[in-house]
Amino acid sequence: MQDFNEYVKNGGKKQDIPEGMDENIVNMVSSLASRFDGKNQNELLMAIYNEAKKGKRNGTLSNADIDNFATMLAPMLDAKKKKMLYKVVAELKKI
User: Fold this and answer.
1) pLDDT tens digit sequence for 19-40
2) What is this structure's pTM?
3) How do the domains of the chain map onto residue ranges?
């Protein structure tokens, strides 16, 4: 399995999506990553949050998708950031 950076570098080809990962989530993260390359962490987090909120409201992002994203992201975070991630996940699931 390739890591996410390799996925982005390869242009997000469908065959590069990790097994069990929703293509919409991977495409959203890839798009945000390229748009916010070089921006600060807060700008990126707000963009991800706003995109997720929009997806929840229009029905293109499920709670399972949010869980999958959090599962993918959590191992890359320290304890403080994981706590924040799970707080945001809980908030998004309420939408």
Assistant:
1) 666 677 777 667 766 776 777 7
2) 0.59
3) 4-93
